[in-house]
Amino acid sequence: MTSSITDSAVKAAIAAISSESATAEEKIQMLIEMAQGFLKQPKTSQDLRNGLGLFYRAYEMCGEDYPLLKARSKVGMAGTLQIIPDSNPQLLVQAKESYEEALEILQQFATLEEVAETQMNLGLVLQSLVPYNLARITDSIQAYHEALRVFTWQEYPQEYAILYNNIAIAYLSMPMPSEREYLRQGLALQSFEVALKHINLIEHPREYAMLQNNLGNALQYLISSHPIDNNLRAVAAYDEALKVRNPQDTPWEYANTISNKANALFNLPDNPDKPELGNPQNRLKAKSYYQEAWQIFTEHEQIEQAEIVAKALQDLAAEIQAFALN
C-alpha cells in the first residue's frame, strides 16, 4: 500500500517544525499553511484527518501568545470537520463550536473580511445542523446577514450572491405552519430577487446562473393558486441560467438545470390559456431534456442524480402511455 501525498507532507511539516531555525510563530504559520494546502488537493477521508491534525498541532503551539493564529487554527479545524465525507452531527457540532470560539478572537484582531468569511461558514454549519435539531435556522440566517455587512455586491459580488442564495435556501427549509407557508416562500423569492438586482449575466455569469437556477426551483415548487404562472416563470429562470451553463464548460451544472427545466415542462400546459388541452409537446421536450441530463450524469459518474432522472423518465413514459390510451 502506497502512502498518500498527504502522509509524506505531514511528516515533512513535522520535521520542519522540529528544526530550530524558525521562530515559534513561523512554525505555527507553516503548519497552518501546510494544512490549508491539503484542503485544496483531492482528498481522502484520511488526508482530511491528517490536515485536521496539523491544524490542531498549530492550535496547541499557539498557547496564549498568538491569539490570531490560534483563531485561524480553529477556523481551519472547523472547515476540515465540515467537509469530512459523511460528516456526522457530532463533527458538525465541533465545527460550530470551533467557529464560535474563533470568532470571539477574530473580531478583536482580524480583518473585517476574515470575520465575515467565518460568519458565512458558521451559517453553513448551522444550516447543516438544523435537520438534526441541533441548531436554529434563524441563527443561520443571522450569521449570513452579519457576513453581508462586509460582503457587499459592489466589493464582493461572488460572496454576496452565495450568501443570498444560502439565505433563500434557508428560508425554504424553515418549518412553518401551513397557513404561513406563503410567508417563508415569499422571503425566499425576495432573497433571490434582491441578489439578482445586482448580480448580472455579463459581469457575474456563474453566480447569475446559480441564482436563476435556484430561483426556478423555488418558483416551481411554490404552493400557490397560480401554478401555471409560476412554472412559466420557472422555465424563464432556467433559460436565463442556460445562457451561461452549457454541456462543454459546465456539464454537471447544465445537466442539473435542464433536468429542473424538464420537471417544470412536465407540469406545464402547451397552451397556458387552454390547460384542458394537455401538454404533449412539453412532455416531449421534457423527455429530451431528461435523456440528455441522464447521459451527462452517467458519463460524469453522478450516480444519484442519474437515478433520479431515470425515475423521472419512467414516470414520464407512464404518463405519455396513459395519455395515448385515453
Automatic annotation (TrEMBL):
It comes from the Bacteria. Gene3D superfamilies: Tetratricopeptide repeat domain. This is Uncharacterized protein. It comes from Anabaena sphaerica FACHB-251.
